[in-house]
Amino acid sequence: MVMRKNVLLACGVVLAGCGGSPVGAPGGVAKTAPVSAASPSQPPAAAPVVAPPAEPAGAIASPAADKPAQGPSCDGRTGAGNDCGSGESCCARALVPEGDVLYRRLDSGPGEKRHVRAFYLDKFEATVGRFRAWVAAGQPAPKAGEVLHDDGDGHVMLWSDKAKIQDVAHLEGWKRYDTWTGGDDKRPKNNVTWFTAAAFCKWEGGRLPTDVEWTRASRGGEEDRAYPWGTDAPTPDYAVYNCMGDGNKSCSLVDIQQVGSRPKGVGRWGQYDLAGSMFEWTLSPGRMAGADTVEKARGGGFCYIGGVDRRATTDLKPAVFREESPETVSHMTGLRCAYDGPSGAGSPAEQAPSPGGGGGSTSAR
């Protein structure tokens, strides 16, 4: 059963797991306006430009001419340069082309055929290093009424004047699994609220992916893959899961591995860690940001598999998700950003499924 918790940052509640208990972050404070803060480490000179490595086996390279410009978070510091995966930019993005996906609430059943416009999706989960660049820039946040996502068919998500992002002091979470203070800036940033994740991606020139976009990338679109990498059963060679990041089943911070550490598990279009590692926030188009009491996070499972997590049956399948308050912070939840596809890609706008659903073909959000 999926549990829902409306967690106010003002109370500083952190969801626990991996054998722990709920832990309060004393005096947790959310904020509505950006604040200036010094980065824990000053960025070095810009990293030298190097040729990107070859795409992993099973991935389809995006057309080079269509690749968007890199966002400001990759300023050359550790975890924000050409040092993710096998020497690739931590801000690398790959095109997920226009097409269809079978969208299911659970992993079995016929699902609903949804059509998705072309979009870009980060190849890696957002790292601690990239978040340090955002903090060094003063934690820019959208203004009230600013557009976060527009599907081109009248479904627009706006930033609310009630939206709050975490201040610098409360980007730190449960010490046992906190990547912000863990000493490796190439790990994914965890303990971020939906609002903080959305603000980061907006500054980066993008947004959070819609739930259907994320599902298309994870399932390999029309291939409807059982796992992002294909049909092979999960092993620690494919994904970071089950507290096996360091080779044994005792859970600790070292089980959260650097982004892109499992090249065998790369998805169809070049994204890493779509299964295992962090759950990743998504958005639902066409409303005010944070208007719903819950938001979805997809993928994930660095420390759980087989239903041990009471909030998700984490078997690394694309249908796995958590539903939480947008103000929830969790050591198991991070993000990756999406970006609108190249102009002229031309496709019907994603639309809500028709009443009745089932296995019929509909457009998607």
Summed up, what is this model?
The protein is mainly beta and 365 residues long.
Question: What distinguishing features does this structure have?
Answer:
8% helix, disordered C terminus, 4-stranded mixed β-sheet, mainly beta, paralog of FGE (formylglycine-generating enzyme), 3 helices, globular, 365 residues, 3-stranded mixed β-sheet, single chain
Describe the structure.
It is built from three helices and 16 strands. The chain is mostly beta strands and 365 residues long. It has a single domain (1-31, 58-365), classed as paralog of FGE (formylglycine-generating enzyme). A four-stranded mixed sheet has the order 13-12-11-15, covered by helices on one side. It has a three-stranded mixed sheet with strand order 2-1-14, with no helix packed on it. The longest helix is centred in the middle third of the chain and has 10 residues, at 194-203. The two termini are 25 Å apart. Residues 1-17, 19-55, 60-65, 305-313 and 344-365 have low confidence and may be disordered.
